[in-house]
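Narrative progress, year one. The postdoctoral researcher (J.K.) led the effort to move from monomer predictions toward full complexes, under supervision of the PI. The following entry was the first complex the group processed end to end, covering 941 residues in total.
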Amino acid sequence: MSLGRFLLRRFIMLVVSLLVASFVIFGAVYLAPGNPVSALTGGRSVSAEALQVLTERYHLNDPFIVQYGRWLGNALQGDLGISITNRADVSTLIATRIPTTAGLVLYASLLVLAVGVGMGVLGGLRRGAVDMTTVIVSAVSAAIPAFVAAIVLILVFAVDLGWFPAYGNGSGFLDSIWHLTLPAIALAISALAIVARVTRAAIREEVGKEHVQTAVSRGIPRRQIIRKHVMRNAAIPITTVSGVTIASLIAVAAVVEIAFSLNGLGSYLVQSAQSKDLAVVQGISLLLVTAFVVVNTLVDLLYATLDPRIALGSRAL
Amino acid sequence: MAEAGGARIPLLDVDQLTVKLPVEGELKTVLHGVSLAIRPGESLGLVGESGSGKSMTARAVDRLLPPGATTEGVLQFDGHAVSGLSGARLKSFRSRVAMIFQDPRAHVNPVRRIGDFMGEALCANLGVSSESARGRAVDALAQVGIEDGARRLRQYPHELSGGLLQRVMIAAALLTEPDLVLADEPTTALDVTTQAEVMAILDELRREFGLAVLFITHDLDLAAAVCDRTAVMYAGQIMEVRDSALLHTDPLHPYTAAIGAARPDMTQSAHRLRAITGQPLSAFDAPADACAFAPRCSYVQEVCRTARPALLELDGGVTRCARALELRGALGGGKR
Amino acid sequence: MSATAAAVPATVERARRRTLLGSIGVVGWICLAVIVLVFVIALIGPYIAPYDPTQSDLSLSYVGPDGGHVLGYDAQGRDVLSRLLVGARSSMSGPLAVVLLSMFAGTLLAVTAAWRRGLTDAGISAGLDIAFAFPGILLAILAAAVFGASLVAATLAIAIAYTPYVARVLRGAALKERSLLYVSALEVQGASALSICGRHLVPNMLPLIVAQATIMFGWAMVDLAAVSYLGLGVQPPDPNWGVMISENQAGILQGYPLPALTASLCIVVVVVAFNVLGERLYEAAQHQ
């Protein structure tokens, strides 16, 4: 059964992608100007003993491949090295920040799906004023980068109206959600516009398709046609685009975290990049890329289950 | 419009049907005063070139016109106006009138199984249970020559060939036991061998169930071979309706005669193929005050350009030719 | 296609839409005008700026519009309008470089894969799928960490991240083009692969390439501005719209939103123009 082969192939691609990405992340340190040691120390001057410790700890005298293997092996067990600036385990430092980023991305994803798909469906099924509005709103929102949305939201809802806080994480479950609302909206806005646009186009296209005519000619009730023929078929491109867009939120979250001074993975990544704390940069990059690739793979799998032509046939169009 | 030779009430009665479509902001006429009638159990062929309006006629009958289209004239099914139907009456209409479309692959939902496709109308419209629908579907498939119906029901459309899929479409159309079947070029998208098979099945089923059929095609010979009567359309207008047997030997309209003469004859050799001069006219460009075929007609005279000819009953048929009475009997090419 | 449209040989209407430029509509032309204007400003910005964009006077921090300073002063007491005008250069040149690089590399990969087909295509396609693993911003941050923050590093990183996407889109079109009969005819006549691709294949794909490039410019602008906003791209005191937003964000909290907002507006207007124009070009390319 080809479905099994399809799953296997996808899984292999997942593993290979991660290996290549981790290789790039690890190898980046070697591409850095200067020798690996200075890259790890971020150009700071370090005592001779510290240098010795570093060299041993990172096995800097071993061949590249061996070092890579060791690093990867450690990473898989949860050991991502030591942060130069904080002198603590990278894994521990990262772990405390994961919930913020995860919460932010999840919150934004919900908005993208609910509002984006919702608007798209409305625009796709109706004509006239409702549709025009969704088209214009989408076109403009799609062009608003997350950090621009962030400052406008801060200006209007935090400073002027005072409904939401302008920065910070908040404490406790409900307070955190309240703090994450503006950031989630900022993150979701342009993604939501893209999803709305694709949804509308997909639904429009399906409604005009011939097999819908067949269903109409057989007297099937309109509600059922919309559900089983229009939505069901449009779900294929909609899912793909939504999934890919949501995956991209993982990277853009960093910008929003900085804008709202949130204590998440993204902001920590940026700070570490600025201070050249490479171990942290590598660790967080690895984590984010893994999440990105996994989400994309899940989207592919979802696509295959929705469209029977894919699993049973050859590669996607 | 009563047709000579039939005392029974027509199942489908179309009289002076004029349909306009919104094109780039304007309403343009795509069907000009189309009139035809089909009695129960009778088959009528509808022949014309692309753009002649034959598909549009079927869509108008089945209420599948695009939004914004306007309809004028009489369109009645079993005595009731089609446009006035709603609710339960409309549902009943839809189960009594079945349409078979041209390209089966485009007209069947690719992401749902054949079984779902076939059972849909039964379950949704007639409240049939899904097991019972499945059983009927298998029987229907057997009738169109598909033996392993149960297996086919579980398959997806892309796993079936074009010919098989068209047979499935026919079987699905017959599931609701319709009285009238509108077949819109059902075999055009298929290769010649499959065409013959599918036509044979359609014909057999028609006889077995006493179906009335509107058979739309661009192939005059095919229509004449399988239908009792044949109507010829040009530029959105009916040009002739005639008993199929008389269509070649004694056509009433120069256009029909020209199509017949253009057919290459295997038994004779000739220097050139006899084509009809000029380009086919689309319904949108049909003049309101002249015969649409005038620019290409070999029998054209002044009278043809003064007004659009009305449909004239003649010799058991109908023709839209200003010189019909003069040309009577003189148009038959004598071939075949 | 729906029978209604197919039934009408609307040759007259179609002929009117046939020209590529005619098909982008009034809105498309407006976008094009905006884009040209911004490019011009990018070129002559330093010469038309009323004041020195780097001259700061902290006592004038966040002062509003007055006399010659139409948009007021930024956080460091510099003239906002001048910074916007001069900042156009780095804000536009970065995305331009990204587009040129990624379109070039992407086209090369796509045409090679489509031309050779077989193993080469399979290999390139697999490679592209794997390369998708890196979102542009992430790669830019990594590059900044390793090579130090700069516009060049960010630009290269994002160009590299975009290339697989471009290659994928163009590969499909290249495959279609390659399967057309004229290509086989040329091959049979003995024309070399290079000449067929260079003189026929790629030029025929030009509408799609241009449309794709236009859309990508918008994305590149957003990504690069974001990277500069994070402090990992263009470095202060060089004026740049993304940097200006981060420099002046504090002003919003303090009640002086103008500097940050005007920089944001510049970005949004340009991105909208590229997005809308790109979409229209894309549709026009599809209809060919």
